[in-house]
Amino acid sequence: MAELSSNLLLIAFVIYLIATLFFGGAIRQKKGMDESHYKNKVTLSAKIGITLTIIGFIVHIGYFITRWIAAGHAPVSNMFEFITFFSLMVVGAFILIYFLYHTPVLGVFALPIVLILIGYASMFSRDITPLIPPLRSIWLPLHVMTTAAGQAILAISFIAGLIYLIKTVNQAEATRKRFSLELIMYFITVVIGFIVITSTFSFMNYEAQFEWVNKEGELSTIDYALPALVGPNEGTLLTASKMEPLVELPANFNTSRVNTVIWSFIAGTIIYILVRLITRKRISQMVQPLVSKINGNLLDEISYRSVLIGFPIFTLGGLVFAMIWAQIAWTRFWAWDPKEVWALITWFFYAAFLHLRLSRGWHGEKSAWLAVIGFGIIMFNLIFVNLVIAGLHSYV
Amino acid sequence: MNKVKCECGHVNPHGTVLCEACGNILDEKARQGKLLDMRYEGSARRSQTYNKTIIDRIWNFFSSVKVGVILIVITLIATAIGSILPQVSTLGQLPVPAHQYYEENYGWFGKLYYFFGFHDTYGSWWYLLLIASIGVSLVICSLDRAIPLYKALKNQRVKRNTNFLNRQRLYNKAENVEIDFTTLKEKLKKKHYNVHIDNGNLLAEKGRFSRWGPYVNHIGLIIFLIGCMLRFVPGFYINEFLWIKEGETLAIPGTDKQYYLTNHEFIFEVYDESDGEVFRNAIEEKGMIAKNFQTNVTLYSAEQSLPGEEPELEKIKDYEIQVNKPLKIDGYALYQSSYRLNEIASMTFALTNKETGESYGNITIDLNNPQKKYDLGNGYGVELLDYFPNFQMKDGVPSTASQDPLNPAFAFKMVTPDRPEGERSFAAIQQTIEVTENKYKMEFQTAEMVNYSGLTVRLDNTLPVIAIGGVIFLIGLAQGSFWQHRRIWIKTEKGGCHIAGHTNKNWYGFHKEIEKILSDTNIPIPIDQKTEKNQEKE
Q1: CB spacing of A385 vs B482 below 8 angstroms
Q2: Class in CATH terms, B160-207+484-537
Q3: Which helix (H) or strand (E) holds B260?
Q4: Of residues A62 and B350, more confidently modeled
Q5: What separation in angstroms does the CA of A170 have from each of A179, A183, A301, A395, B471?
Q6: In its keyword annotation, does this UniProt entry include Transmembrane helix (chain A) (predicted)?
Q7: Is the Cβ pair B279, A129 closer than 8 Å?
Q8: Smallest CA–CA separation between A254 and chain B, in Å?
Q9: Is ipTM > 0.85 here?
């Protein structure tokens, strides 16, 4: 059953990949892309794209259900499971928004993000882990799945905002906006770099173990899946004929993770430079023609609507259900755990976003920037807070 | 203050921008624009109208959404900074003063962090002040807008001023049209609109209640914040901790000795092969994975007893306290929070003649309750001079590192018939120190191990208030987010007609809906003036 589950995920991945191509084909056709967005004609290519997406979504659900059966508990208890479920919800949110607004261009961006998410998830341990006592509760699926659904809808707001920015930010002038937009593209490339470099070395079965002195002054060992550029405090390499670290870091750091981050940036930067050299264009400049014909007002509305749908669901799952469960499992509804703190920050941020939009009239570009930053906070909470600031939520 | 009388005859409060009844533009500035600012229906808000007394000023300050957003952003940043380093409250018992701890562990950054008070961000007075300010802002912003908005929506008439209609985002007009209001009404009703027709004018409206969403959710937030503050009221919140070892019966702290608890057994389980093949990889990789922490207890209620008197216990129930499954009684909840396995409960020594090995009896020292003297009869006895639960030698002097019996050590005085003065001996685990050459020794026999269960005892009467606030907040949030307030106006004039539409959000869906309703009628479909405006710019 566990094997079937993995295969289904792989199949879903491939289907999404093909669907992306069809959505790409859909927006290349001139038909149906005129300004009068109220009468969008759906092209054949878009129809195939959405059909494939729905099939992929069903297969993806198949992965989820089979893994649930295999594990005996909802498969949302570690990084791999959470991110694959989150990507499932992004696809679901995309399908929902597609049928509300009939916009194939959203698929051209949403599905690659989903592919990157599944790729990112696969870099973590895919073992089915049994649940530790605090996780053994009906609130595990309720809290995690609702939160993921809310965040996924907010991700659609990010995607619509990103498309809006790619469309409107002037590429001819060297402005701060142009730079910031390109920076987002660069960060996405770094995530791809992470996937490429990690899977390369994992394919080569690279493993190096170090003995080091931790913060409490005790001897400990740490495993590296990538060649050590930075080594642990007073570390000695135990595995024969592997790379010796170039720099040693103080004991406060989880050096293996810092090392992975550095490698990701190196790989991402190389990929980025290659793309720039080959195309002679900034990435945002390169994609701009794809979205130039889409109606900006419509994108703005999609982005805002996604926040309006996503924010209450996120509040329900990420704060209300979280508080109820914390009261039961941790004896108090609020513990200022880093993950909780960042959920609160996310909530504050979107609350500010809604107020700025409703009362200060921040529409269009300003709103799009906020949607992008909001999703940045969600990703920060998912990646950085889980991996670096370990708290009660560090179930990696 | 002067009331403003509109040409339609309606008397508006001072400061009104758009006449509550007909929508006529009463403010010169608003007249200049191509589109109307429809927020709060152009009603007279106190904050926009008065600016005289101090109360006006304070009101005006907090009634600004800009100020509200700034407060939210400041709180957001402060909250984020508080998550950079661990908060002092999560560090437990520190071996050194907190300022030293931060400096030693995090260098100059830790020193600054402590200096600015971020080590206790969420408990600091300035953080509470920020939250309180947001609360005040919530109340004033809501009052400043909700009441005039309510009045404006209540006073609106079917017939609207043309100046109002042609400055709506969705608008169109036509000459020489005959409108069949009866069919139109049917069509609108099918889409759940409330339709009002008055002398050739039409107002179709739905979802007005969604306009109250923000105010409802703000009321919920206020109740939530009040609930959080109730914690500081005595009696609303009790937070105690109970270490109880197996076999022990103790009064539950915080309950005024009203309830007692017996710990029968503490159970600690880990996952193994019997839990299934699927987990094998994970268990191999991580080593041990905990499966269950459980304390089997019996709960008793006690009759009020005089001090010193043994309480009379009446059994209430048996229960298995687990993580995620607290024991609840009368508002109190007992949570499985911690445990200590295999702690030394008691140690048994034998008073022994070193040469002959003859034993004169055993003494058993209960480490929780060590006695001063143990009499063995026939003139033999042992006095316990000193007890070190966690023995260490510090500067050549025996001392204890903590009160936990991790490495117990004892100073004995052995009294025997032939040595009535007694011999002194110092016994720690696997070592005996003698000041003088002794004839007798205390020989270690056995130690008894016991498990401790750590239970959090909590009473939180603020929870119902917080829950009510949370539910109201969610209802208001859904109300304002998932529904929208839509209105369509039609005005016939000189044989022609004006049509305008307004929604507080989701224009695309609204426009599509109007298109559908107006199809097969001779009424012109409104044009989105905002898109056109954009097109002109491009």
Answers
A1: no
A2: alpha beta
A3: strand B259-270
A4: A62
A5: 11, 15, 21, 43, 45
A6: yes
A7: yes
A8: 15
A9: yes
